[in-house]
Amino acid sequence: MPFVVLFLNLGTGEILLIVMFVVMFFGTGKLPEIARALGKGMRQMKNATAEIQREIEIGSTEIQRDINISDEISELKKATEKITGGIKEGLNSIESHHNSKEELNVSKEKETIENENPLVPPGAVKRD
Predict the structure, then answer these.
(1) Residues 38, 30: contact at Cβ < 8 Å?
(2) pLDDT tens sequence across 50-109
(3) Whole-structure pTM value
(4) Of 29, 108, 109, 127, which sits most exposed with the smallest number of CB within 10 A?
(5) Nearest to 37 by CA among 22, 52, 16
(6) What is the percent of the chain where pLDDT is above 90?
């Protein structure tokens, strides 16, 4: 880009001086070849600049996509933690409900075992 800026800062007199120097130094026969080479060089520079700009744009879109992906990943992690917490709460609730039923059944079994005497017939009336 600095190369283009240099040409933009040249005045008419300076350009004529450069052209006269080129004509005197190289001659009029080489002038078309020099112009072609200069044009080709400028075209290559323009293509290289466009390629660099394209690479920068591709890199920036990839970075932007990575940033968006990391945002999505953090949202998914939050949702996963929320779901995991809900599942843990549900399992704890089921476990406590199951344990309370087990304790109730165990206490009923203990009562029936303590109250039952194997020597007493099943239809006998119990007296306290």
Answers:
(1) no
(2) 999 999 999 888 888 887 787 888 888 999 999 999 899 988 888 887 777 777 666 666
(3) 0.40
(4) 127
(5) 22
(6) 20
Residues with Cβ within 8 Å of residue 26, at least 6 apart in sequence:
34
- The 3-class SS string of the chain reads CHHHHHHHCCCHHHHHHHHHHHHHHHCCCCHHHHHHHHHHHHHHHHHHHHHHHHHHHHHHHHHHHHHHHHHHHHHHHHHHHHHHHHHHHHHHHHHHHHHHHHHHHHHHHHHHHHHCCCCCCCCCCCCC
pLDDT single digits (tens) 9-31? 778 888 888 888 888 888 888 87
Question: What tokens appear for 30 in the block?
Answer: 């080489």
Q: Is residue 54 within 8 Å of residue 42, measured between CB atoms?
A: no
Which residue's structure tokens are 């406590």?
96
Specify the residue for token string 């052209």: 19
What was the pLDDT predicted at 1?
Answer: 44
Read off the tokens for 38: 């200069």
